[in-house]
Amino acid sequence: xxxxxxxxxxxxxxxxxxxxxxxxxxxxxxxxxxxxxxxxxxxxxxxxxxxxxxxxxxxxxxxxxxxxxxxxxxxxxxxxxxxxxxxxxxxxxxxxxxxxxxxxxxxxxxxxxxxxxxxxxxxxxxxxxxxxxxxxxxxxxxxxxxxxxxxxxxxxxxxxxxxxxxxxxxxxxxxxxxxxxxxxxxxxxxxxxxxxxxxxxxxxxxxxxxxxxxxxxxxxxxxxxxxxxxxxxxxxxxxxxxxxxxxxxxxxxxxxxxxxxxxxxxxxxxxxxxxxxxxxxxxxxxxxxxxxxxxxxxxxxxxxxxxxx
Length: 309
Hints:
alpha+beta, START-like_dom_sf, PI_transfer, phosphatidylglycerol binding, PI_transfer_N, phosphatidylinositol transfer activity
């Protein structure tokens, strides 16, 4: 479903390029899948971010999927002090495990945020009735048309717990950027998981071989759609991930950084550069470090822990 979403959101040089998708074996976590992607952003940054970002800009995403445990990391060569680290754990409950990340973040201040795929509001521009869990009814599974309180009554149910840590160690911008990224990550998780639920009839009967073939075909089509023509993507073979990297936790195939295409257009020389953030952003005390703990999302020094979907 991530491959499908990436293809839909990619066009004219913007979107998600798949660089690598290989199986590998980790000595601690066992067999898994490693993916590396480049997320090209040309229209999603706020004006204060566009002022310092080059026109050709992309974020590197590396993910290690050892379902039911995964790790995803986002970095940017242009911003060496910026990173997003997401650890994901899946459990068959409704978000009742409050200590699931105690070992990973026991010394960090966290904010816990519950994401409800049925009742939480999403930006109007992203809304589709066919992807609304309150209206969608699966023909193959009978699941769907979730109502208020669905987490207490529906079975089967799974919670995707996410520990999200955002770091941007640049004086004067740290708090603002970390808060902004946490909000974006939360919105992406909400939209992405709504789609995964609403698209269940498309993937429910697939075997793993069919999943890999779908990924291969979709990823090659997406790379061509955004104007990238790399060698054919390999979905099988020996893991190419160095052991030093594989030791870190990884997240399941990660959701694209944003559901809108960003415009990283350089600011014209005749237009003064904005010095203040958009009015929609809140500027807290820069001395304070901010972290968001979502059902699968955390920020800055505070990791966030998500709750049931």
